[in-house]
């Protein structure tokens, strides 16, 4: 099974340099352009036949996942539900939430511990992702997309690697993929890690562990953002207004006064 580990689009707090783990920071206008580019790219990739979309339940991730699902339905006629999981939330920075990076080191005494994040990730792997892999042991055509957050995705990736059989991690012969074996991967906004997860053999009834094999193809892939520039004047960094209409919407035939809100989107 193909697996995509995707970071959400740019948010207002990302631009402001604010600790925003559990804060439900809004996507910027530029962030919406990013997720639309990502959604279109994934729909065009014929090798990535999306079948499952899992997301953090924070809106910056949900909006990113929903953009992917919408484009899959429009371009590929795939009706894929977005399944939200609290386990995929970003690290909670405690009393540092909302503070600027320079004003704090992100190590408040009440911030979430690495052990807590790993426990959440392990619960997600055990209850949702690994059963999916074991139920599709020979499926090399389906893809599962997981939309989450920069820190949490790193924890998820390392926990997944820890489940792989000895010698079972391989990488494509490119610097990006090879770096994933040396240091934890990094995710830009809407960047994604692409890998395949497969079974290496049968699972014994008395053994709950899975003989997994992991092949990393791309790390922090952001090819869909090529030539995308942020609107000047601070507009691109501002919170996205879902009531804003595109220029083309003014030329849609029909009585404009009766145009429904769902026909309106960002420019």
From TrEMBL:
Q: Which InterPro entries match?
A: Caspase_his_AS, His_Pase_superF_clade-1, His_PPase_superfam, PG/BPGM_mutase_AS, Phosphoglycerate_Mutase
Respond yes or no to whether keyword Hydrolase is given for this record.
yes
Q: Which SMART domains match?
A: PGAM (SM00855)
Superkingdom of origin organism: Eukaryota
Which residues of this protein are catalytic? 8, 90
In terms of Gene3D superfamilies, this protein maps to: Phosphoglycerate mutase-like
| Single annotated GO MF | fructose-2,6-bisphosphate 2-phosphatase activity
**Does the record carry Hydrolase as a key word?**
yes
Annotated GO CC locations: cytosol
Q: Which PANTHER family match?
A: FRUCTOSE-2,6-BISPHOSPHATASE TIGAR
The protein's name in its UniProt record:
Phosphoglycerate mutase family
Q: Which organism is it from?
A: Trichoderma arundinaceum
The organism that produces this protein has a lineage beginning with: Eukaryota, Fungi, Dikarya, Ascomycota, Pezizomycotina
